Amino acid sequence: MEEVPDHLENGLQIVFIGFNPSIRSGELGHHYANPRNNFWRILQQSGLTPRLYEAAEDGELLKLGYGFTNIVARPTVGAEDITREEYHTGRELLRGKLEQYRPQIACFVGKGVYTEFSRRPKAQWGFQTAEPVVDGVREFVAPSSSGLVRMPMSEIVGIYRQLYDFIQEKG
Question: Which SUPFAM superfamilies does the annotation name (predicted)?
Answer without folding.
Answer: Uracil-DNA glycosylase-like (SSF52141)
